[in-house]
Amino acid sequence: MKEKAFKERIIYQIYPLSFCDSNNDGYGDINGIISKLDYLKDLGIGIIWLSPIYKSPLKDNGYDISDYYSINPIFGTMEDFDNLIKEANKRDIKIVMDLVINHTSNQHYWFKEALKDKNSKYRDYYYFRKGNGKKPPNNWNGAFSGSCWEKVEGEENMYYLHLFTKEQPDLNFHNEEVVKEIENILKFYLDKGVYGFRCDVINDIYKTSLDNGKFRFFSRGKEHYENQEGCFNTLLRFRKEVLNNYDTFLVGETSAITPKMGNKFLSSGALDLFFEFDHAFCMSNKFVPIFKKRKFKAKYLLKPLFKWQEVVPWIGAYLENHDQLRSVSRFGNTSKYYKESAKALAMLLLSLKGTIFIYQGEEFGTLNYQDLIYEETNDCMTKEVVNTVQNILHLSKDKAFKLVNETVNRDHARAPIAWDNTINGGFNLGHKPWIKVNSLYKEGINVKDNLNDSNSILNFYKEMIRFRNNSDTLKHGEFIKVKSNSNLAKFIRKTNKETLLIVINLSSKVIKDKENNNIKILLSNYKDHIKDKLRPYEGIIYKVN
Ligand code: GLC
Ligand code: CA
Question: Which of 130, 178, 196, 448 could form a disulfide with 420 if both were Cys (CB 3.0 to 4.6 A apart)?
Fold first, then answer.
């Protein structure tokens, strides 16, 4: 039987605001994406996931949608989008949309009607509730740390719920009409030829109750809305009413997921795959998460990563996305072994089980900003968290920013993509971009310089992607962890036809590793090999006889 496309192909995430600006107005756009399809094809990508391109006031860069049926004019028109699907299809690339349904923008028609008229049917599309004396309806606080309730202006003691910013009011999935609205949106895009959906904060959409939550700094109240039965039922309903009629798939963004819940999402059919976040947050200090990072050790990354490889039959495997700092800056080496470490991470990622996600810029070793200051920050979350850190730790704004910038500032991933070493890294023709350019494009961290260097990170990605695309073992084999030195990622991928052994040194030390002579080297990130040793960040894929 032929596997579904999402199990065969590598997915590349585009953050449209920062990908390529075709009309030089400072914002990336759809025509910019179209102009880079050949690049993506050449890279070996089979599916593109677009972060939101719908109409939006961009308070959370598009994760606040004001009209699901139109394209934000900054990005282009619906015709441009149709053209993107057509041009992608010509190259056998499928398009995945971001489905943001936990909340809308406060500028959405539904919410504006709900505010205008207490008796409007749209009031029940959201959570409007009376306060508790002088306090909000409950003690929940948001994912970005501030309160979850905003007062309704001009109404006595009335609030609405928002798990994220106050410009992102939460939708009420107890309301049948809301469920139907989402079904119509799904149909609309599937009929246009969209292949699937990445479902934003999907395991939070269903609020079982609005009771007070247990004490927590962030996401207080989450026991009332995380992984609820109602969430499974809602997704299964989408499946039955809409999705089953199409060749499509859903990948869920599921923060704080457990193996039990993850398996339930898969076995119930509610999701086809999901993202876990244990490995993504492995660098934050256990006791003061978010505010302080710890020094990288390979085991911090590998333990959670491998745990998830072992406990679920399929997963969305990734090291980066638009919400994380750059992976080489976090898990690799940014000085002497920069290239080796970026290639080692590429080998790790592309040898894992599941559907592989590559985030724009990751394929040529993009690093964090080196010199960002608070005033240059765009990220709405960073601003809220800085505020909270200032209050809790009694720090100045600059000191609080310094901590948050090194741990959770999402802007690091959102700098304009550097296509070459001309002005603004070739993101556009010179107009000031919406967010600061990462000046490292001048030092070779750009696409063109990488393409011209046969030993570059980008060329290694290409080689590794080609290898995976041609390897049934990497795509479909089982994953078996091998006990080893804690600086090594050592694991087996295996089908009944072939066994591969992957060994990657994730440190800048030389490490002894004796592999028997029955094995043949298929791929490596160094040009030569030294018997029984792995040099800093050296990675090797062996074929076992
Ligand atoms: C998801 C998105 C993030 C956004 C949040 C609220 O976590 O990835 O960028 O801010 O949801 O929609
Ligand atoms: Ca533009």
Answer: 448
The bound ligand whose nearest atom lies closest to the alpha carbon of 144 is 1
Q: What is the pLDDT of residues 90-123, one digit of tens each?
A: 999 999 999 999 999 999 999 999 999 999 999 9
How far is it, in rounded angstroms, from Cα 332 to Cα 337? 8
Fold of the 8-103+176-373+411-464 domain = TIM Barrel (3.20.20)
- Top-tier CATH class for 477-544: mainly beta
Domain boundaries of the chain, sorted by first residue: 8-103+176-373+411-464, 109-161, 374-408, 477-544
Give residue 518's Cα distance to chain centre: 39
Say which CATH superfamily domain 109-161 falls into. Answer: Oligo-1,6-glucosidase; Domain 2 (3.90.400.10)
Distance CA 112, CA 114 (A): 5
Atom 4 of ligand 1, nearest CA residue: 63
**Phi, psi at 348, each rounded to 5°:** -60, -55
* Residue 289 confidence (pLDDT) above 60: no
Examine the residue annotation and report whether 200 is marked as an active-site residue of this protein: yes
150 catalytic per annotation: no
Give residue 448 CA to ligand 2 midpoint distance, Å: 21
Kindly report the pTM of this predicted structure: 0.97
Residues 500 and 78 sit within 8 Å (Cβ to Cβ): no
pLDDT average, residue stretch 335-354: 98
Contact between residue 271 and residue 250 where contact means Cβ atoms under 8 Å apart: yes
Rounded distance between C-alpha atoms, residue 220 and residue 218, angstroms: 6
